Amino acid sequence: MAYDSSRPPPPAEGIPDRLYGRRRGHPLRPRQQRLLEETLPRITLATPESPRASFPLEAEALWLEVGFGGGEHALELASKNPRVALIASEVFENGLCSLLTHLVPEGEEATAPLPANLRLWPRDARHLLMALPDASLDRLFLMFPDPWPKARHSKRRFVHPALLPLLAQKLRPGAEWRIASDDPTYQAWVDEVMGAQDLFELAEHHAEHPEGWPRTRYEAKAIREGRNPRWWIWRRR
Question: What structural domains does the chain harbor?
Answer without folding.
Answer: 35-42+56-236 (3.40.50.150)
